[in-house]
Amino acid sequence: MRYQITGKHIDIGEALQSHVKTELGEMMSKYAGRPTDATVVFSKSAHEYVCETIVHLSTGLTASAKAHATEIYAAFESCCEKMDKQLRRYKRRLKDHHKERVEPVEITQGASYILAGDSTEESEPDTLQPIIVAEMETKIPSLTVGEAVMQMELAGAPVLVFRNEKKDGVNVVYRREDGNIGWIDP
Q1: Among 143, 154, 175, 179, which has the highest number of CB atoms less than 10 A from its own CB?
Q2: Of 69, 97, 125, which residue is a domain's last?
Q3: How far apart (Å, rounded) are the C-alpha atoms in residues 59 and 81?
């Protein structure tokens, strides 16, 4: 597994890096047989340390966790506990409700745009075309609906666009305000 351990405006020592590799390695060996890479970013927010961890699994799914604490090791341990809980639930769902995926998730590329928000002016805009602030490529996985819901929950995302394996069309799952999951199948 590849590790990328960085700090935003703070120095990450060798002891912390080796601790992170050891702890993540042990946790990943329990739940995921073939994790591909892990990104751990430490930062400081006022008096607290923040630890953000993202782990990419060989099945194409991504697990992420974020935690705050007054000490850097405690922030990582709390983040590790959250990741452990996510992966334990993921593994239980695979065992109970989903077949083991033999092949990795197929990923297609798509364009992703960030549009400028509405201006504070009360006058009508000159054109109805939105202003593009940024343009990026995004990955669109080919999943079943159940796997898409699981991926959205693991990533902590409010919405996930995916290619439906059964119908071969682009679908969307999203978290509704009432806490339920919505599914758009055009």
Answers
A1: 143
A2: 97
A3: 22
Record the tokens describing residue 95, joined without a space. 């065992």
pLDDT, tens digit (0-9, with 9 covering 90-100), for 71-127:
999 999 999 999 888 888 777 776 654 455 566 667 777 777 777 776 555 566 667
Could you tell me the pTM of the whole model? 0.58
Do 14 and 34 fall within a single domain?
yes
Question: Among 107, 52, 61, which Cα is nearest to 83's?
Answer: 52
Task: Using CB atoms within 10 Å of the CB of residue 19, give its burial: 0 to 12 exposed, 13 to 18 middle, 19+ buried.
Answer: middle
**Residues 89, 22 share a domain:** yes
How many CB atoms within 10 Å of residue 166?
Answer: 10
In a shared domain, residues 24 and 83: yes
Cβ(171)–Cβ(133) below 8 Å: no
Q: How far is residue 41's CA from residue 37's CA, in Å, rounded to a whole number? A: 13
Do 86 and 45 reside in the same domain of the chain?
yes
Token code pair at residue 23: 């702890």
Same domain? 148 vs 85:
no
pLDDT digits (tens, 9 = 90+) for 115-144: 777 655 556 666 777 777 888 888 888 888
Is the same domain home to 64 and 143?
no
- For the chain, what is the total number of helices (H) and then of strands (E)? 3, 9
Asked if 58 and 104 count as a contact pair (C-beta separation under 8 A), the reply is yes
